Every structure is written in structure tokens, then in C-alpha cells.
Amino acid sequence: MGLIHIDLFTTLDGVAQAPGGPDEDADGGFAFGGWQAPLFDEVVGEQVDSGMAGMDALLLGRRTYDIFAAYWPHADGGIARLFNRLPKYVASRQTPALEWADSTLLGPDVVAAVRELRERHANIHVIGSLDFVQTLFAERLFDRLTLWVYPILLGSGKRVFADGVVPTNLRLIEPVVASPKGAVLQRYALADGTPGVGDMSAD
Hints:
Elements: E1 3-11, H1 42-51, E2 57-61, H2 62-71, H3 78-85, E3 88-91, E4 103-105, H4 110-117, E5 123-127, H5 130-138, E6 144-150, E7 169-172, E8 177-178, E9 184-191
Parallel strand pairs: 1-5, 1-6, 2-3, 2-5, 3-4
Antiparallel strand pairs: 6-9, 7-9, 8-9
């Protein structure tokens, strides 16, 4: 069975809305689109590149798909070549025209469709797609969670862990690494069970 990887950029207070540019997602009057750009550095770039090793499919929400489809087919470089040749699967409640090569709309039962994708691919990456990610969290339908946590606070905006996240155990699977501009890479695997409790006052 293949692995589903969720890759997200987030602020220290958990905001992951529109890291890439001012026009990416202004829902709710969000005024900080592109907040990642001043803090992106070579180390993060190398981490992103290395994290894509073995990727054999992209799984995206509709908004992120539209942003990617408008940019990557016209771009150069290794990531562009990778994204353009990979199969791309899109979760949407509508029936959009998908003009980017090798793009497929998932059926109305998204959860079942994602489970079927795990039987066809080894490493499926969900990049951004914050609204869709909430469904994957609620269904525990992911295997790896990679977060780049940036040293800023925005106070409002769509968050990585919104309402509806179910209690879940995660396991840190590699050492935490900080970039020169302060982005902290944290990579987790989904773990069995639910969080336990105890009594810290006990001797």
C-alpha cells in the first residue's frame, strides 16, 4: 500500500493560508498572502527538493490545482519537469475542466477514491490544499505529515489543524532541522491509537 504525504508551510500559530503569493487565497479578507516569501531560503529549497524523492502522484484540492496548473506547465527546472509528468488527482465538489496534462477528477466519494489511489501509487503528495487536508485529517487518511514552521505569528487565517481534527498520535521520524531564516522542518508519521493521559502529580 502506498503512502500519502501531506506537505504544508505554516506559521508558528498554525496559519497555513496563502504562503506563496498575495493572490493565492484571500478568503476571509486574509491580508498576508505570500508571507513565506521573505523567509524562504536555500536550506528550505533543498529540503523541499529532497522531500519529493520517490513521488509518483500529486493529490490536490481544487484551489491549489488551479494555482499549480496556471504556473507549472510554463515553468522550467526540476520541480516543473516532475510535476508536469506526474499523474495529478483533484478533489472538488464541482466538475471543473482539468487542462493540465495527466489530470483526473476524483469521484464524489473522495475518501474511497483516495484509498484506491494508495493501491496504485507508492508516494502520493498533497501539497497545500488546506481545505482538502482537513478531510484527510478527519479520516486519518494520511501516512506522513511534513511541516515547515516559520517564526511569525499572523493571528488569523486558515489553520493547519482546524475544527474537526480527530485525536491522533504522530511519531517524529527524523531530527528537527532549522534553516538560517528560522523555518523548522518537522516530519511525522501517523501512529496507532489515540493520545493517552496521565497524572503529572503522581510520585
